[in-house]
């Protein structure tokens, strides 16, 4: 605590002691003086050593937790924690490794049909004499005919919108960030599922709002807990994924969507709906988007990345009418506009029906792989769906989650820890994510899943280093 004491000793008159303590602890973490997983001194001990109140220490620890640098566990204490952006890089591999069966990244399956269509479209675009998508730098919201195609795609997903309500974004993650940036800042509380996409957690650390998780069951977030939080705190927004939650694959029924929309309307809470997996379900289930039931309060975002082509990073964000200008201005500052070339490819595939053909192909491929996972790992499955990119697996008794994944890596199989999906203050589940879109043959997929099955069926080593 020497650096902490020195920072407080050099405080200028009027400087906030808790902020100085936050900066000192953060500096020790950045410099490696405090390592990931290390337990911080108890708050009373810090208070006595530094000559400050326990409340000041509590405020500092809470701020460090909000920033993602510390995790606080009831009954155990406070521990150094890498930020979500850093944890994701180690939990979901950034680079492919030869001989590794990588089930850590949620991606769709890539086929020769994807390559043929991409090459054909690029050739057609290159041969056209007039190519406005190459030199366009406005409108910021996207070219008019591209937004019109977006409206047609959204209608297919059960979401009604006018072209003036839609922005083209660089994928769904970008759209969700724009919605959060429109609504939330350091004084705001945003709710999410108890297991949520890591992008929402990372956005809270960038934008400074407080993110709190809600209890979940197999159908998604618990409406009673949502209402209880709204009744007891000033909540700005709810960000959620009703269709095939990442990582659990939970699918929210229509009745619950209506109930959540009504609660949001009653308390004036905005809804940010991540429907990146919606295209995989369109026409297969009756539920309309959650945003359909409270459009005046809702941001709805989808994209083609998780259903049509991985590299087609084009998203469509539907905004409440009264916030459309504000969100568009944030897009202007954030990235000016989405790439018009990718927007043009998406538009042509939507209009020709080829986007829908690739979705149909994806459903078939995913269903085959999910059936394989269910066959080999059915007793360990907590959540899956025929059209989901993920299978959510219970960690067997006797195993620690980290040890289990290390053993799998030794056998050249990579799965994802639960850590990137756990909001601050929520318990870490004994579960891991297996992504079925791994870029490998069906035979290789079966081999990898069988390795997972075999390791799950064993007891761990006495010592695991």
Characterization of the model:
The chain is of the alpha/beta class and 465 residues long. It is built from 18 helices and 16 strands. It has helices at 2-9, 17-30, 43-50, 54-66, 84-91, 112-127, 132-135, 144-156, 172-183, 198-207, 223-232, 254-267, 278-281, 324-335, 340-352, 354-377, 401-410, 442-456, and strands spanning 70-73, 77-80, 101-102, 166-169, 189-193, 210-214, 216-217, 220-221, 237-240, 270-274, 298-303, 315-318, 381-383, 390-394, 413-414, 431-435. The strands form five sheets. It has a seven-stranded mixed sheet with strand order 4-12-11-10-9-5-6, sandwiched between helices. Helix 9 (172-183) packs across helix 14 and helix 16 (354-377) runs parallel beside helix 18. The longest helix has 24 residues, at 354-377. The radius of gyration is 23 Å and the shape is globular. The chain starts with a helix and ends in a 9-residue tail after the last helix. The mean pLDDT is 91.
């Amino acid at each position: 605590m020497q650096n902490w004491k020195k920072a407080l000793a050099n405080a200028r008159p009027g400087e906030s002691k808790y902020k100085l303590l936050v900066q000192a602890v953060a500096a020790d973490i950045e410099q490696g003086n405090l390592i990931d997983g290390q337990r911080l001194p108890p708050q009373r001990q810090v208070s006595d050593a530094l000559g400050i109140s326990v409340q000041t220490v509590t405020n500092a620890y809470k701020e460090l937790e909000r920033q993602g640098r510390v995790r606080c566990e009831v009954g155990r204490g406070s521990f150094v924690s890498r930020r979500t952006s850093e944890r994701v890089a180690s939990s979901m591999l950034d680079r492919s490794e030869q001989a590794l069966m990588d089930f850590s990244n949620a991606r769709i399956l890539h086929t020769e049909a994807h390559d043929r269509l991409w090459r054909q479209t690029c050739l057609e675009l290159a041969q056209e004499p007039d190519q406005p998508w190459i030199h366009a730098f406005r409108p910021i919201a996207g070219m008019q005919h591209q937004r019109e195609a977006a409206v047609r795609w959204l209608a297919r997903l059960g979401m009604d919108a006018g072209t003036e309500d839609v922005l083209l974004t660089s994928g769904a993650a970008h759209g969700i960030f724009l919605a959060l940036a429109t609504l939330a800042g350091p004084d705001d509380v945003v709710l999410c599922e108890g297991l949520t996409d890591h992008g929402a957690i990372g956005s809270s650390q960038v934008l400074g709002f407080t993110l709190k998780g809600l209890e979940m069951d197999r159908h998604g977030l618990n409406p009673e807990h949502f209402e209880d939080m709204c009744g007891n705190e000033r909540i700005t927004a709810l960000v959620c994924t009703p269709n095939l939650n990442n990582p659990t694959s939970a699918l929210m029924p229509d009745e619950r969507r209506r109930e959540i929309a009504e609660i949001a309307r009653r308390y004036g809470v905005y809804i940010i709906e991540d429907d990146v997996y919606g295209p995989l379900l369109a026409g297969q289930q009756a539920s309309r988007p959650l945003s359909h039931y409270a459009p005046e309060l809702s941001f709805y975002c989808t994209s083609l990345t998780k259903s049509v082509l991985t590299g087609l990073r084009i998203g469509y964000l539907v905004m409440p009418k009264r916030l459309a200008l504000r969100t568009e201005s944030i897009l202007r500052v954030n990235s000016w506009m989405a790439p018009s070339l990718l927007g043009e490819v998406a538009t042509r595939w939507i209009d020709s029906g080829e986007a829908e053909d690739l979705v149909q192909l994806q459903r078939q491929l995913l269903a085959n792989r999910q059936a394989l996972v269910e066959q080999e790992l059915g007793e360990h499955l907590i959540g899956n769906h025929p059209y989901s990119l993920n299978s959510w697996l219970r960690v067997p008794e006797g195993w620690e989650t980290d040890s289990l994944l290390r053993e799998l890596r030794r056998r050249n199989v990579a799965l994802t820890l639960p850590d990137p999906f756990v909001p601050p203050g929520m318990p870490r589940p004994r579960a891991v994510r297996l992504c079925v879109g791994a870029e490998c043959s069906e035979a290789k997929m079966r081999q990898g899943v069988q390795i997972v099955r075999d390791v799950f069926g064993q007891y761990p080593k006495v010592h695991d280093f």
